[in-house]
Amino acid sequence: MKPAAGQTVFVGLSGGVDSSTAAQLLLEAGYRVVGVYMKNWSVDIGGYRCPWRDDYLAAKRLAAFLKIEFRSFDFEEQYRRLVVDYMIEEYKRGRTPNPDIRCNQEIKFKLFLKACSDQGADLIATGHYARAAAGRLLRATDSLKDQTYFLYRIDLGALGRLIFPLGGLRKSEVRQLASSAGLPNAERPESMGICFVGAVGLVDFLRQYVTAEPGGIVDAGSGETVGHHQGAIFYTIGQRHGLNVGGGPPYYVVGKDMGRNEVYVSRNLRHPGLWSEKLELAETHWLAEPEPDRPYQIRVRHGADLVAGTVADLDAGSQTAAIELAEEVRGAAPGQSAVVYDGETVVGGGILA
Questions:
Q1: 301-334 tens-digit pLDDT
Q2: Could you give the residue numbers annotated as active site?
Q3: From the candidate CATH numbers 2.60.40.1120, 3.40.1080.10, 2.30.30.280, 3.90.930.50, the one assigned to the domain spanning 211-266
Q4: What are phi and psi of 252, to 5 degrees?
Q5: CATH 3.30.40.10 is right for the domain spanning 278-352
């Protein structure tokens, strides 16, 4: 990170150790740093208190400690419309969306970037574990923390204005840097649960916004009803836990019929509903145009192993494509994303149709 003279970078501060350490590193590199807290959600859900105020105060304390200017942007209305409503509608359709990907696409690297630019930022930075160089999005050094799966839908034009100060560090190094610098939130635990709500589980969140009806859990082989659910919307392909179907080997979700409100399960780990060797993509987004028949690496969920594959049937007009995998992957659910890599470089990807 070598700033040009007088460059100003606005860094998104969540109140956590990662964004705080990112701000510290930017200061050390010589940037003029402005800390910004994004208020995206403030609604309490199902008895759980939304932690936004705690996060805001933690971010403000960090800015005071670093002696940097602090601002707050309120994106709650846009977040509800562009991220939360999208997520709810996808679940109603029986799909499995990823709100983190949607948030990065619509809020952090679009609305936030524009708001920062309007207020004088030359660059923006976040505490994501990723790297950006020469207009390319690259995987982080720490493969266990790499977050490029969530970032593949960033606009190509934005890449040249992004800094990811933690991209070359491991999480243990980040904690050590924060501790050595005496940052006030060096030991703050990582947030759990839905990205924007805090400790609330997905089912608890969805129950506030959708009407779910009980229905049958059906053995996909025999057609026998082996249990009952409280809403097919709450289940995803490959799911094993939470079925409450007792006795014998575990069942796995292999399909859903939202019209009949039925969830189909199987004890057969080789059931075709669990495995995919070809993935159909919609709403594709490419940071670099993929080449037909070129070997790539594919990731179908955050943290999953990379699988060799090729991209085929590209159609820029309809934003569709297909991915042909060298080996089957389990539990690829409609609504999830498949991300294409060329070594360390993120090529792009799409949403499973």
A1: 999 999 999 999 999 999 999 999 999 999 999 9
A2: 103, 195
A3: 2.30.30.280
A4: -125, 145
A5: no
